[in-house]
Write the structure tokens for this entry.
Amino acid sequence: MISSHPSKARTVVVGGGTMGMDVAIVLARGGSQVTVVEPDAAKRQALAAHVRHNLEPLGMAHRTERVQALADLADVAWPGVSVLIECIPEKLPLKQALFAQLAQLADPDTLLCSNSSSFPISAIAQGLPTAERMVGLHFFMPAHLVPLVEVVLGPNTDGAIAQGLCDFMRGCGSVPVLVRKDKPGFLANRMQHALAREAFAMIDEGVATAEDVDAAVRFGFGFRFLAAGPVMQRDHAGLDVHTAAAASMYPSLSTTAEPAQVLRAHVAAGRLGMKTGAGFFEWNPAQRQAERQRYDRLLHQGLALLADELPPLDRSF
């Protein structure tokens, strides 16, 4: 079963890419002993420096010693591992094969979690004897800066185990939300995509440019979301006002089941965003670096603003 506090737990992260390394930081700041399994030697070598760089501002650089990297699942000391988090590429057959292997390797008490952003945990667990202790544990990039983590129950997941995982993640300084039904996109991504569908539909219609869509969110209602979510916002504004506006607008909102034309055109042209040097905007190496620095700086400032509302970290060791 899950240890009462991360500092008393041994954890395993499978996959040492960007997401896996950041999840390791989350676990280490909670005090957990973390083993990252990553076959790529360069990624294993980069892990310690990345973890230390991000724990230093928290005064926790010494907890880097709690993180180790191994090349193979067979090298893990499985007895006593409380939580395993899968962070491998987003391909269902790969995930299914991994969890089938873990069903043979991991202790019967090890909680098996997938960081999948799209595949239901029920699909990953299909046909496995471990379904009762398999949970979706969905982080958001960058995982060590975005506080939210979704704890997603499959139809066979033991609810008490999921509640224990929520407590465990609070001990790591994260804000868990319990998603009680295993729907595609879970909770946050469903709302995010509902917004994105309308945003790109309005770009398709010529209502606004990409720049103005972004500004409307960041400096308008999105700015207020730092203080209150969409439900609390309605209590601030008045449910009668919202209901009247909803009745007026909902009939004209996009309900298309297809990605927007502007998205499909960009993908067809190979304009995939920063990773290809162009998307809606142009990204040479200097622009990409400057934007990522600006983005990370604002996320850190947002964390500082929310510090009093985040779960406290145990700094006593």
User: Anything to note?
Assistant: DSSP finds eleven helices and eight strands in the chain.
